[in-house]
Amino acid sequence: MYLGILKIKINLPANHTLKGKRTILQSLFARIRSKTNNIALSEIDSHDLWQISGIGIVCISNDPKQAEKLLAKTLDFIREWQADYILLDHHLEIITV
């Protein structure tokens, strides 16, 4: 079994409140879930900062290439849809469990 982990860091330049950050993240998570199945998402870093967010996206697969393909597709979608945020950094990793 393989665990695919994608960590991203985004900047929310037009945002000025934690409530606004939550709204943007909920919208982003809903869009990702509508395009990609079998993943889990969560804000994992910078909870108290209103213009920065660290997000973790994970999937489990019996094929490492399938896990990598799914997360790469998710990253491409995130890059395409940079309306409310700017992608600052990302790290993709596949772990054997």
Structure summarized in a few sentences:
By secondary structure, the chain is α+β, with helices and mostly antiparallel strands. It has helices at 18-35, 64-80; strands at residues 2-11, 40-45, 52-61, 86-96.
Task: Provide a descriptive summary of the structure in words.
36% of the residues lie in helices and 38% in strands. The chain is elongated. It is built from two helices and four strands; from the N terminus they run E-H-E-E-H-E. The model has no long low-confidence stretch (mean pLDDT 93). It has a four-stranded antiparallel sheet with strand order 2-3-1-4, with helices on one face. By secondary structure, the protein is an alpha+beta fold.
Write down the overall geometry: elongated
Helix content: 25-40%
Structural category is: alpha+beta
CA-based gyration radius: 13 Å
Mean pLDDT: 93
The proportion of strand residues reads 35-45%
Which stretches are poorly predicted, pLDDT < 50 over at least 5 residues? none
| Distance N to C terminus | 5 Å
**Largest sheet entry:** 4 strands, antiparallel
Query: What is the topology, as strand order, of the major beta sheet?
Result: 2-3-1-4
> Total strand count, please?
4
Helical stretch tally: 2
H/E element order: EHEEHE
Q: What does the secondary structure layout of this molecule look like, with pairings?
A:
Blueprint: E1 2-11, H1 18-35, E2 40-45, E3 52-61, H2 64-80, E4 86-96
Antiparallel strand pairs: 1-3, 1-4, 2-3
Task: Identify the notable features of this structure and list them briefly.
97 residues; alpha+beta; four-stranded antiparallel sheet; 2 helices; 4 strands; 36% helix; 38% strand
